[in-house]
Amino acid sequence: MNASVPGAAVSADGPFYVAAGKIYPREVRGRYARLRGAAVVLLLGLYYGVAWLQWDARQALLFDLPARKFHIFALTLWPQDFLYLALLLIIAALSLFFFTALAGRLWCGYACPQTVWTELFTWIEQWTEGTRARRMKLDQGPWTAEKITRKGLKQLLWIALAAYTGFTFVGYFVPIRGLAGQLASFSLGPWATFWVFLYSLATYGNAGFLREQVCKYMCPYARFQSAMFDKDTLVISYDAARGEPRGARRRQTLARPQGLGDCIDCTMCVQACPTGIDIRHGLQYECIACAACIDACDEVMDKMGSPRGLIRYTTEHALQGRATHILRPRLLVYVTLLLALVGGLSYLLIVRTPLIVDVLRDRNALFREVQDGRIENSYLLRIINQDDRPHRYHLLAAGLEGLTLVDPTGGRIEVPSGSVTTVSARLQAPAVVAQGVHSVTLALVAQDAPRIAVRETTRFIGPKS
Amino acid sequence: MNYPAQPDASASRSAAMERIWMLGIVLWPSLLAACLASLLFFAAVDPLLLRDAGPRLFDELEREGGYALGFFFFWFIAACASTLSLYLARTLRPVARDALTSANER
Questions:
Q1: Which residue stretches of chain B are H helix?
Q2: Do A192 and B93 touch (CB under 8 A)?
């Protein structure tokens, strides 16, 4: 039958959507759990903390969208500096590729905001609702006073945390101290309120409810990261050769004489998995490499008296009993590209002049004749001082014999830090040399810092010969 | 040709979930596209310049409002593209799909 089914999303492999059961990850202890915890504290500490750091009486890290200026500690970037930001993003993407090729999904397991906030929300859940078994029982049970209290407390903490996260997020785009003041006096603007609310909602939804579904269904990186993988990439894997055939046995007994592998099929690795997969089926794209199954299995192996590492960080080559190569062409290419980009960006930032001059010719008249038969051209200079302190600039002109500058500011153009000033300037040249069209150069030099200088070439137009 | 049957016990719930699911398929990638488009566009263009150049409709708009308006505009356009993609993929009759696959294999 070839009829299409209206209203049902079907593909060749079956329905697009299969309702997923709620996953109750089992709490694990161990070295990777500690590492993940440390990553959560460090990264979220940075996220919530850096927003409040000050640098020279302004916020240290502020992507000031209302003022169209990005402050990154000592550096202030303007929209004209978009190149630096683009380079920075490319470097970030390449680093992700590099670390993926080297050590698999390190990003997913330890550093991705989705993982980090989910971890924090799970801590709150475990603190209010208890262990995996208690949470499952609580969900199945009736709405008792205890259930209402536990669930209510969890929601309260989640909402408070999500709201503060949203507030901090907006604080990276609008000065956070001002934002806090407005919040305290209930005078937050409509747009700030809207974005705080939206980001809070996203945090709450992503870390509270969607969780592993973000990684499984929404994350593009999860789908294409396998392109960076090869047989020398560090992955989390079950050692099937050592574990199979799986089966139950007494503690502190040897597996092999009983015709068994080391895996006792306790399913702790499955219960611990936040994405609800069985690592023993091999590498799956749902695996976010959080290493919870390693900790769970190691604990069981300790109790059974078997060596740790039935599930471990390893490579496909190592599992096949072959040597793992860390230095390989793929990695060298990534490293070379990264070094080149980081070097290029550093160079550009070092030679960057915090001054921009736009020269506009007067549109009303091509030229004027002034006294002594000299020819005069008028220009409008738009001067942007991108430095974080005020400067006084000298204007110089060159390019024609006898060219003089009629400078209404008397050689003192003062521009406050981070501002734009427009000044008019007139150039005069003797009529004999001014005939036709000429290229002239205008140079602006900071008086207190000769390094800050910009040259702009423009046209000087005289009467036709 | 048979399709796997929907679990009938929760057929209506599953149909509703599927609608939400499709909404997600449309809205999520278009949101990512809108973020990128806003970033690139507003890096080059100041919303205040646009406001002053355009009709007097938006005279009161601040920069923040301009960014938000631009973002939702891009999201809407990208969502239209996503919807169309989903619609074209979904309404392709299986026979046409088979023809496409076999043509590719040849």
A1: 11-44, 47-53, 63-90, 94-105
A2: no
